[in-house]
From TrEMBL:
Start and end residues of each ABC transmembrane type-1 domain: 114-339
Keyword Transport: yes
GO cellular component, one term: plasma membrane
KW Transmembrane (keyword) present: yes
Lineage of origin: Archaea, Methanobacteriati, Methanobacteriota, Stenosarchaea group, Halobacteria
Protein source organism: Haloarchaeobius iranensis
Subcellular localization(s) per the UniProt record: Cell membrane
TM regions (residue ranges): 12-32, 120-141, 153-176, 212-231, 271-296, 316-335
Name listed for the protein in its UniProt record: Peptide/nickel transport system permease protein
Amino acid sequence: MSLARFLIKRLLQGVFVVWGVVTIVFGLRVIAPGDPANVLLPPDVGPEVRQQVIADLGLDQPLYVQYWEFVSGIALGVPEGLFNIATGQPVGGLGLGTSLTTGTSVASRVGRSLPATLELAIMATVVAVVIAIPLGVISATNRYSVPDYGATLFSLAGISTPNFWLGVMLIIVLAVQLDLFPTSQRAIGIPGVVDLLVSGQLVAAAEGFRTWLWYITLPAITLGTYFTALITRLTRSGMLDELGKTYVRASRAKGLPDALVRYKHVLRNTLIPIITVVGLQLGTLIGGAVITEFVFDWPGLGQVLINSINSRDWPMVQGSLIVIAVGFVVVNIVVDTLYTLVNPRVGFD
């Protein structure tokens, strides 16, 4: 199977996955307690006004009609049954509708928050991979030695440490007491750095990138610690399995340098499960950075999702979950494509 056919097949499968998520999200909105009209109206409003708002939201329609309008609105990019609180006019964005609490486009709000979450998730992944793979290799090639015991202890501590506690401790020690990093917020993002770079402000872009690194370091370490420990253990176990195979002994018998055998052959054959876990965990980090974003007041999608759940802003909740689901699908397609680059024996079939 060619790469093009493989991508088309996976994209079609991804469409069905996203459709399933959309259906589940719609079902959660239906069975969840509370009335969306309560978000828009004061408690003492009259029944006529309440019924009018429910009708404007389309909640008086049969469930199959609501479901069709919801799915078709997402598929066609047409807002259905939602309106701006201030103007009373329909407002949409990519068919995700309008926030019940702010009257702004869900797509624009999610779009403003998504870059911060992606930056945090990708940076946490980079931190994990850069630290974990060399640590796992050192641990596997020095089995039952001090480096091995140290890496094992680090992995155990990383997996056992709650990230919210680690985030608070990093803030207290490194930000408050030592004043090495900021305690919270995000002064500038990668899109801002790129804008400065495109406009030719090279010095300002370099300073902006340094500021971005300064602000994202503690959140990335907090979010990536568990991931680092997981990849370290996975790399160590995979390396140990590969080091005991016949081709390794044959390569060494031929006189190949140990570093060449270790990194070009053994580590490369270990990367398949690592890539799988990295891809799955990256998707998890995109949707699961809620606690870290809350601790560091990071303006990402996690905070938007939690605030929307607390305020019963279902259009915003639905839009956030759909974007996260699409992220999972895209990451999985990329991971499956990378398999063939790492191991040519893995085909697209």
